[in-house]
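Working notes for the structural subgroup meeting. M.R. asked for a predicted model of this chain before we commit to crystallization trials. I am recording the input and output together here so anyone reviewing the notebook later can reproduce the run.

Input as submitted:
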Amino acid sequence: VEELAVTEGSQVQTGNILVKLDPRLAEIELARTKAVLQKAEAHLARLKRGYLPQEVTMAEQQLLKAQQELRLAEKKCQALRPLLERQEIPPLQMEEAEASRQQAEAAVGEARARLDLCQAGTPPEEIAEAEAEVAVAQAQTALATLDRDLCTVTSPCNGVVTALPIHRGMFVDKTTRLLTLIDLSKVFVEVRIPGG
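Returned structure, recorded in token form:
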């Protein structure tokens, strides 16, 4: 409890501040959720924008490089086959060359897939996923804003504070009763008159 704006017996009007709780944790959480929201929005914007021309060019260059390495590996294998047949090289050397050729083939496939992805743009399901992440971040930010706003407790009606079991500096949680407020505009009195 950071501040008590009332005491027992205080009369209050609707909207008057009753209690202020320490908002620091709520403000930190709000800042965190805002940052998460900004990150999600930036990610969505990037996906909607698609790949930059520089990224497509880079993917094309990676494919060309992988194709050159494959051609070199194939030439090496072709040059080593006759030597292996004549037993001028050990079989292990040919196996190593063949493994290098297979790795180069895999690299070409990977580079081609990357280029295809860059040219095709962002798949709609990725955009939908990013939009959902933005919606979740917005909801978390709204909840954090509400938690921060609830650190200032205001009177929901005109009335009188009849109990105030808290004091300044006290730790409270969501289950702690802060005060009792009675709306005196709806008081019923039952009186018995003795008959005589």
